Description:
This protein has a single domain (11-356), classed as Amino acid/polyamine transporter I. Helix 1 (11-22) runs parallel beside helix 11 (213-238), helix 3 crosses helix 9 (180-191) and helix 6 crosses helix 14. The protein has helices at 11-22, 26-33, 44-65, 71-79, 81-113, 121-135, 139-153, 161-165, 180-191, 200-203, 213-238, 241-246, 250-255, 266-297, 304-319, 324-335, 340-356. The chain is mainly alpha-helical. Helix content is 69%, strand content 0%.
Amino acid sequence: MDNRKILILNRYHVFFLVQNIMIGLGLLTLAYYVSPVGYAAWVVPIMLGILLTPVIIANLKLLSRFPEKDVFAINRTVLGKRLGSFLNLVFTLYCFLVVAKTTYGFARVIQSLSFPNKSIGFPIIATLFCVFLVASYGVKSVARFCIIAFFLTIGLLYFLRWSFMGATWSHLFPLFNFGIREVIASLHKGFLSLLGFEGILFYYPFIRQKEKALKDTLLGFWLTISIYTLVCLASVVIFTIWQLQNLETPVLNIFQLAELSFIERLESFGLNIWIFLIVSTASFYLWAAARGMKSLLRQKTIQSKHLFVYSLLLGGLLLLPIPTKIIEQTMDTTVHFGFFLIVFPFIMIGLAYFRKKGGSL
């Protein structure tokens, strides 16, 4: 449900929202996705960070023009009722599909690692139930959960030490032994792991100190880039190029290298802890999708029953007897809407400036 006190997010809420929304399923598979450039995979997150920083600045520039509005209200203001409502529908579907992709992808990882002969129905239902509980109390609840998730999971980075202990440092050189085609492929696939940078478009109106939102957002964003770079570096120095291109969850494979007397299978333990990151990402996008539905249906508030219905619909769709390949292709194709988010703020800033000068759309 929406809180009547609009300005409910402090600076640390903004920082952890940015950081945890991005780190969900993507970190598990990032090194695999950027493997077309071979051993230079650890450079790709830095390149993506440099490319996306101007986009984040443009997002904040757009939002500062409409400090009391989220992206759904801005779309209707700038584009008009019909075109704005259509774009809001697209944004809403995008948010729902990110929830579905995150939940389904994590359930598939659990199935392949722990329950290869069992259905993924229970992991999907259990994850969506947790997502609903967090999202039902609003964006401040999501932000608080992100803080908890960060401190519960950041310790997993310690287990990367086994990768560096057995590292082959020669893998880091030469650095630029790839072509432009491999760079484009890695940036294309790696970008999808960084979705979440656009989250501020949805929660900006709830921030108290909006004048410092850009600084807090960039700090959270670059902390995520640093973690991504460290994980990719750990993968590069321990795996061969063939392994990088064939191990879909290299982080879990690194965990298998760890030798601890009190934990038999560290990858299973790590996966159980990882659920906090999955719920952080999915609960935010479920809340954002509910705001989109609120805009489309002209609802006054987001109620828990609405989020419960949306969760049930998502769960029902994911459990339908549809071939796995079709589900994954649909999600991957639709989530590519994320590439539109790169140019979105620049287009909207131009249109807003045009309307301010007295033009019409």
